[in-house]
Design brief:
Layout lengths: L3 E3 L2 H7 L9 H4 L6 H4 L7 H10 L9 E5 L5 H9 L4 E6 L2 H10 L5 E5 L15 E4 L8 E3 L9 H18 L13 H12 L4 E7 L23 E4 L2 E4 L3 H10 L2 E7 L10 H8 L6 H15 E8 L4
Parallel strand pairs: 2-3, 2-5, 3-4, 5-7
Antiparallel strand pairs: 1-6, 7-11, 8-9, 10-11
Helix pairs in contact: 4-5, 8-9
Length: 314
Amino acid sequence: MRYFINSTANYHQQDLNSLGWELTVCNSLEPINSPCRKVLASPYSFGQHLYNFLTGIIPLDDIRAVLEVGGGMGYLMRDFLNLNPRLRAKMIDISPYLLAKQKETLQPFEVDFELADILAVPSEALSGFDLAILNENLGDLPTLVTQQGKKNNSDQNIACFGERLEYFNKKYNLPLGLNENEHINIGAIEIVEKLCLAGIKYIYLSEHSCEAVLPEPMKPYVSLQSSGIPEMISLKDHNEFTVKFSYLQKIAEMLHYKTRRGAFADFLPLNLNDKVRTALRLITPFNDEQEIIRQFVYDLYKYEYLILIKGDEK
């Protein structure tokens, strides 16, 4: 089967100079007066919500070394360090612009920074971390796209990925490449294996999911379709893809990790009051705030997280 490689590396390394047009869930909850905070049961930042959620799943008080890959503006790590000053943090990012922003945000803390492509970092260099975080960025990693006629990749490069697909299929009993219409999150698959083989005790991953399922009570308010195969998201000067989390989950479990998977709504509980219901039921929003609320609530269910816990941990 013929693929071309969708990569955002050049965009992040050379062209990215703002995140203003690409509003992540983490960034949307950053302003204290954000309308997104007002629709949640508790009006906290994303990092505060996530940290509180993880405390019920993993022993954060025992964690010392934490790695965040692709940490955006640094808000999530800032919240973690405020809540747990004993953490020793390292940020790895492929984007010079974003790494500089992280340095600004995390200036009050002792943090290590590295400009690097995580896929090129040796697995052994990651073995000293207790917790790894990749939040809302798996779709930025390379994706094999089933489309003919692309000439931006060498045959040698494609052949290399073909060998990797054969390797993953054989080792993890995956059906990669069998569906001619299925794009493949090869970068996300690679990074999950790398983090697990590094022996990191706890791993948190999240991204838009192509397998998201809407709870029955939310179906009158949110329209969410999941194709089951990675979908293209067209953004400014680059494309990203939704992620097939079932493949990542299977790899982790075969590498002896326990898994927990769910939607962002699990740790960003919605206050479904009359104001929110009204905004969600409108065919056309009357104002910007209603449009923001609609998109935010959609993202609470479209985004999935995957928590991996090394098998010998209690």
